[in-house]
Structure formats: C-alpha cells, structure tokens
C-alpha cells in the first residue's frame, strides 16, 4: 500500500466551506472514481487551525495516477468546485506526500 497525506491550508475563515465541500460533494465523487480515504483530520494544536489533513490509500502509483486524474478532470467535480468557490477561493495551499509503511508499521 501507498498512503498519500494531503494538507489543505485554507484562507482565514474558509475551513467550514472546505469541510462542507468534502462532506457533501467530494467524497461522493471519490466513491464514483474508486478513491479510498483513510482518515480526515483538523488541527487541534499546531501551526494553523485552518488546515484539513487527510490520508488516501492506494494500491500503487499507477492506481493513483489513473484514479486521481479521472477525478481531477471529471466535469462534475470541476463544476462543483467552481460553484463552491463563487464566494471566493477556499484553499490557500496544498501539500502532499506519498508514504510507504515501514516493516514495523501498524498500518500496512
């Protein structure tokens, strides 16, 4: 397994809009494309309480490329994202890393 961690830093006050978009739109589209989430987190203590961090689980880099590209170019996603940003940009920056579990990791 490969795990992808993504951190979305929102513009001030826009985290609720991002959470709503994931809950009501994004996750349904991920299901459509076979994208599996492994957890979502907001920051209780850390650099910014305007962050959303989440993990995705992939069988391989090829699976990630195929499914993520299909999602990112889906006209339904493009339209929904634009609609949710009619009041302005939500996400300031996105950071991501692709991780591989160690031999002793509880997560495989």
From TrEMBL:
Matching SUPFAM superfamilies: Dimeric alpha+beta barrel
Any Pfam family hit: NIPSNAP
Domain NIPSNAP: 3-105
Signal peptide stretch: none
UniProt cross-references to InterPro entries, sorted A to Z: Dimeric_a/b-barrel, NIPSNAP
Name of the protein in its database record: NIPSNAP family protein
Species of origin: Bradyrhizobium quebecense
